Task: structure prediction
Amino acid sequence: MTEQLSLFQTSEPHPAEDPDAAGLVLQEADGSALDELFRLSRRWGRNCDYFELLEFIARFRAYSPLNCFLIHLQDPAATQVATARTWFRKCQRRIKAGARPIAILAPMSPVLFVFDVRDTEGPALPPGAFKAASAAGRLPVKSYEATLHNCGIQRIAVREAATSAISTERTVRVTPAIRKKHPELGLEPNTRYLVLIETGLSLEEKYAALALELGHLFCGHLGIDGDAWWTDRKNLNLERIDIEAASAAHLVCRRRGLAQAGSRFLAACREADRELPFFSLNAVFQAVTHIEAMGKAVWSKPRRHGRY
Result:
């Protein structure tokens, strides 16, 4: 993936950036080409610009967050994209002469080329031609149940508790002290993490709260264990931790059509424009990809990494 991403990389740092600080941040992340590109460009360095990027990614739920980022990088005005074959098969539309292709990553091949609807011609788009994020704001029960099941497969216990019984840390490593403190939770012997969700929430609110906590876990904010596919990033400052987990939860919710639940995590981005600290977009995307996969099917064994 790093070699593929190098095709999209920029080479010049922003003139206002501190090279020493930037280098430190890159070490604290995972050194990926994606994080380097995100750091050097600073095109989304202010929170309003970053929020617009997240909203763009949320609209293209048929594509991975990384591929949505690559689409935005090449054509931020894109609204509906597909391969030439898909445009013709689904809509009987052809690619215009001189159309500019958008390169994205694809399994088993270096890149795949897609085209925005602006670069096609033919009949009007049929209703429902492309799957888009629903605005219905309802989550299928089976998606939440699959997510809970797959948490258990990964030794993550999810329990509901009264607000008064939940501390500021809602996701913790399970230690002997935790087991002694919460005997009523009936934690399995092999449980490694505990996530506490408030009682009395709607299904959508429960999912949003769980997505936020899983965002912390899969972004590495609690460190790693023997089963972890994510990077140990527990020494980040609180602001960067909050941005990464909130970004992951926002994308998971918005791409599910849970507009209200997802938007509340990054409401501050729309209130006042400010410069954001450096953080790992790579960690966010991997967390989103993994959480989304957890809600699609019931697993029989853990998946060891969040593939794009």
Observations:
- Residues 7-31 have pLDDT under 50 and may be disordered.
- The two ends are 9 Å apart (CA to CA).
- The chain has twelve helices and eight strands.
- The first strand starts at residue 81 and ends at 82.
